[in-house]
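This section describes the prediction task in plain terms. A model, or a person checking by hand, is given the sequence of a single protein chain and must write out its three-dimensional structure as a string of tokens. No templates, partner chains or ligands are provided. The sample shown here is typical of the held-out split.
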Amino acid sequence: MTGAGGLPGFTYVVAREDVSDDGLDVTLEAKAEARELLAQRFGLLSLDELKARLLIEPWRKRGIKVSGTLDADLAQSCIVTLDPVPAKLSADFTLLYLPEDVSGRRAMEVAVDPLAEEPPDPLPIEGVDLGEAVAEQLALVLDPYPRAEGAELAATESLESGSGKKPNPFEILKNLKTKD
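The expected answer:
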């Protein structure tokens, strides 16, 4: 079940035939090399811990359902001061996988309901890398604009002047007028 590809030290490939009817409990913990690669990939200052507790169950005869919780201890760069912003994240998630249609038929029309649940991801024949799936879930829960406590953007000069009047971009053209 453990694959050779993917993130070194954080790869766990599972195929449908690996999952019994009772399900499969898996705990993944990223090793130092995988954490370093993920920190680079997601632009983190550090990723000190990444763990996931997963329950893998059969779903719709040929598919699998992965339910789990990820816990991460990391530091991001503040968007204002560039100071480290430490964060402890915990997130629950559910992923669904179904094999692609092996008959070769293609769907001619796809109806998308924005309020419906997300469709299942394709389940490759060799199985799905749960380490990569957890890494993707980590990316989804990261703060896109981390700010250090008390960090504020400086007000611009035109706003501080208090005049409230915007400068006219055509004002400079007055100087170009020729006098007859």
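For orientation: Strands lie at 13-14, 24-29, 46-59, 63-77, 84-98, 121-122, 128-129.
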